[in-house]
Write a structure and sequence with these properties.
With about 170 residues, the chain is of the alpha+beta class. The protein contains six helices and four strands. It has a four-stranded antiparallel β-sheet. Strand 3 and strand 4 form a beta hairpin.
Length: about 170
């Protein structure tokens, strides 16, 4: 039993370091490849925890290789746009110029109810207030409101000696 506890502690530390090396804090920040690596890592460490007769080095080497492949893939993705698009996908506009793009919602397998729920989570309760809405590669929504519904900022005030920002009247 003590051997299992020690192996578990070692493998826990390895997985924690691995996730930190990938640079993510939450599952929602992960790209699809990173999520796959995380799932595979959990499988790799489960084997030596369950079976003390198997050498832990095999699992540690496999973990190191998997982490290395993920880091190499991330470096390639940073430098190669086509590789990045293939492994991570692209952001997709589901609302453009105030119009809901039903075909894109269908491509993403999102219903209108899913979109409305996600907008409410962004404190947007009226879809007619939205200029642009993007589904990012990590599944999060980015919302740009129409100018009339955007929060007022100091840059919007007519202060003396201030230049007007582009795109504002």
């Amino acid at each position: 039993m003590l051997i299992t506890v020690i192996r578990l502690a070692i493998l826990y530390c390895v997985i924690t370091v691995a996730i930190r090396l990938m640079g993510k804090r939450q599952v929602g920040e992960m790209q699809p490849t990173e999520l796959v690596v995380t799932i595979l890592l959990s499988e790799l460490v489960a084997i030596p925890i369950q079976d003390n007769s198997l050498p832990m080095a095999t699992s540690l080497i496999s973990c190191a290789m998997l982490i290395g492949l993920e880091i190499i893939g991330s470096l390639i993705a940073m430098r190669n746009k086509k590789f990045r698009e293939f492994t991570q996908g692209n952001s997709i506009a589901v609302i453009e110029k105030g119009r809901v793009e039903l075909g894109r919602l269908r491509d993403l397998r999102l219903s209108m109810d899913d979109l409305l729920e996600a907008l409410r989570q962004k404190d947007v309760f009226d879809i007619s207030e939205v200029e642009t809405c993007m589904v990012e590669t990590n599944g999060q929504l980015s919302v740009q409101l129409k100018p009339a519904f955007r929060p007022l900022t100091a840059g919007d005030l007519p202060l003396p000696g201030k230049r007007k920002r582009k795109g504002h009247e």
